[in-house]
Each structure stands twice: as structure tokens, then as C-alpha cells.
Amino acid sequence: MSKKMISKSRNRLTIPFPSLVGKLILGVVMIFIIAVLVFAVSAQKRQGRVVSANDFPGADLGAKINAADKALGASPGEIVVKGGGTISTQAIISSDHILRFLPGVYVTRTTNIPILMKSRSSVIGAGWESIIMESTAPNQFTVISAYNQSIINGKPDSALVIRDIQIKGANPGFNSAPQAVSLGNCSGCTVDKVWINGTRSIGVQFGGSSSTGFFAENSKVTNCLFTRVASQNLALVNGKNIVFEGNRFMTSGQVGGPGNTNIDVEPNQGSDHLENVVIRNNTIDVRNSDTSPTGNGIVVQATSGTPYVGPILIENNTIIGGSNQGTITNVLSNGIYVFGAMRNVTIRNNVITRTGQSGIRIEGTRINVVDNRLTDVGGGGTPVFIVLATDSQIINNTLTYSGAGPVDGTMLIMPGSKRNVYQNNRGFQLSGDVR
Questions:
Q1: Is residue 56 scored above 70 in pLDDT?
Q2: Residue 434's pLDDT is what?
Q3: E strands present in 224-294
Q4: What is the chain's alpha carbon radius of gyration, rounded to the nearest angstrom?
Q5: Which of 224, 215, 209, 158 is nearest to 188 (CA)?
Q6: CA 320 → CA 114, 178, 222, distances in Å?
Q7: Cα–Cα 20 to 30 A to 309, which of 114, 130, 142, 208?
């Protein structure tokens, strides 16, 4: 009797091992499915509705975009435009809305700025087959602008995103001041994978007037392509914590244009900021430019009297200013040019080839020029390297000569330079006021 009872008791208490594992697996799977559903619902709620601008009433795409934007209201949402067409009405994108251009050519004919972006809005293409044309209206060179900046130069905007789109020149005139992408004193803003193609004034600019007390901040331009831009390709006039990285500048300038610099960092007012600026991993190649000379590679200057300067880092950039094979050309003037009341600038690990004037020219204090490689630069009486600096270090730079075309191996130290360190600079002949 006792043996039977014990046997039954054991049968009741024993749970088969595979059954326990199966239940545990089933429980984990159910938890995972629930989590995925919750995440999907949450993501959909964050993204909001998606509407097609083409389905809304309006005389042109601009009017249709505004109608779609109004339909989304204050909630997050996305406006999709497809197939190309004409924007004759200024389009204003509200906060938390995305304007998405599918492949096509979008022609702008507005007399004012075609697209304005309110804070936390985005303009996104499907790649460089999504093309927005510059307006053909007289003196209308801006294609996309931060909303507040368009009303008062210097007012702040924030969290704007422009990416995966092409902006193409179309205006019959030229200018040297307006910008195809005008972001002013924008904070937390990104321009990424945008092709600025043959626009007739400045390409992309951060920084507006500092008279309002604001400046661009924590913003970046990355992985963009600039081709045949008539004026400055990429510019900063008033900003802090700004990054220009991984961009390509090809064949800059146009015949009849105002002249250009590929990357131009330049304050306009005594209260402007140039602080914590990084210019890194960019490629400048002007060998096939329409004009010669076409300007400078990278210019960083402070002539406005602002005390808000530095640190500035210029590193790992490749600058090709002409051809040193076949027909020798000197298309670019200076490779890297730093001047004015500049301080706390580091120029390192850059590769500069075939410039008509100096490969590197520096003016200011506490400027460190280290580990740069220069080939076939200077010539015709222009030194390869010019220094007008104090308390600076010029160390471990290299000059090589291919044997083709002009070159000048002089590192010229201008009067007024003092307390500098010159060390292990190979291929240069030191000349001038060395002390």
C-alpha cells in the first residue's frame, strides 16, 4: 500500500522537462511579440500620418504642399511629393513635419524663397534623382531656408534636417551673398548627402547676424557634393560647435561668376562666433573647373574684431589645385589660408597638391601646423609656405616635387613672427625673420 501511494505521488509531482522548456520559450516569444507591437505602435504614433501632396487641391505643387501641411495640423506627419512639377507658391513646412520628395525634377518659379522650414522640420529626398531647381526669378538664389532666418537675419531656428536631395542651379544671373541652403543661426541642424549642383551664388551657409545675440550651434554639413558652385561652396559666418566633414568639392566656380572659396569660415561682425569648428576629411579637386584661377581651398579668417575665435581644427583634408601630369595647371590659388586675428588653430594631416600660390599660409597666434604633405606648390616667386605668426608650431611637414611644373620650396617667415617652433620640416628652405 505505501509503495503504491509513493509511486502515485511521484507521478503527480513529475513535470516532463521538454514541456517546461516549451512553456518558457512560448512565454519569451509572446513577450517579444508584444514588445514589437508596442514599439511599432509607438513608432507609428511618433511618425504620424503620411499624406500625398499630389492628392490635395492647389494650382501648383507649392499650394498642394501647403494644403497637405495644413491637413496634418500640429501633429507629426509626412508630406510626400512625387513625379516632379512646378512650385510657384512658397511652401512652408510646419514643425514636426517631413517634406519628402520622390524622384523627379521640381522646378521653382517663386519670386520669394521656394521652401521655408520651421523648427523641427525636415526636407528629405529619395537620393540625387530628387532634384529641386533654383528659381529663375531675378535675384532669387535661395532654394531652402530656415523660417525665422528668412524673416529676420539672425533669428534662431533649430533641429532642421535636409538630406538625400539635389539642388541644381537655374537662375540666369549671379550673386555672391544669398545661399541655396540658408540656415542662419540654426542649432542642432544637419545637412547630409545633399548635392549642390551649379548653383549661382553661395551653396550652403550656417550663421546669420549676431546682433540678435544668437549664433549657429551644434550643427553639421556631412557627406555632401558641391559641383560648379559659383560663389563660396560651404560657408560659416557665426557659429559654435560646427562640423564640416566628408564633403566633396569638385570643379568649383563658373565663367562670369563672382569668384569662390570652397570652404569659407569668416565672421562679418565683431560679436560673431568662430568657436569649436571642425573641418575634416573633405576633398577639394578643381582640376577641371570652368575658370582659372578659381579661388582658394580652405579659408579661415577673422578680420571683424570678434574675440570669440577658436579652437578650429583643419585635418585630413585632400586639396588638389591643378594637374601635375600632362598639361600642368594651377587652377587653385591658396590651399589652406588662415589670416586675421586668428588663434588656436590646428592644421594637421592635410594633403595639398599643385596650387598656384601657397600651399599653406598662416597669420595669427597659437597656430599648430603639423604632419601636412605638400606636393608641387608655389612657384613664380610665391613661397610654398608663408608664416606671419607668434607662439606657433610648424612641425613635421613635408614638401615634395614631382619634377613637373613650377614649385617654390621656400618657407617664408614674415617680419613680426616670433616665439615659433620650426622642427623637422622636410623639403623646405627656411627664410626670413626666424626668431
A1: yes
A2: 81
A3: 225-227, 234-236, 239-245, 248-250, 260-265, 273-280, 283-285
A4: 29
A5: 158
A6: 35, 27, 20
A7: 142
Could you give the percent of the chain with pLDDT greater than 70?
A: 89
Strands 202-206 vs 179-187: parallel, antiparallel or unpaired: parallel
Query: Which residue type is seen at 269?
Result: Q
What angle (nearest 5°) sits at the alpha carbon of residue 287, between those of residues 284 and 293?
90
Set of cell numbers at residue 359:
600651399
Q: 3-class SS at 100?
A: strand
Please state, as a whole number, how many other Cβ atoms lie within 10 Å of the Cβ of residue 419: 10
- pTM for the whole thing? 0.88
pLDDT in tens, 127-183: 999 999 999 999 999 999 999 999 999 999 999 999 999 999 999 999 999 999 999
Amino acid letter, 94: S
Q: pLDDT per residue over 236-285, tens digit each?
A: 999 999 999 999 999 999 999 999 999 999 999 999 999 999 999 999 99
The kind and range of the H/E element at 409 are none
Question: What is 107-162 written as a DSSP string?
Answer: EE--SS-SEEE-TT-EEEESSTTEEEEPP-STT---SEEEHHHHHSTT-EEE--EE
Peptide bond into 406 cis (omega under 30): no
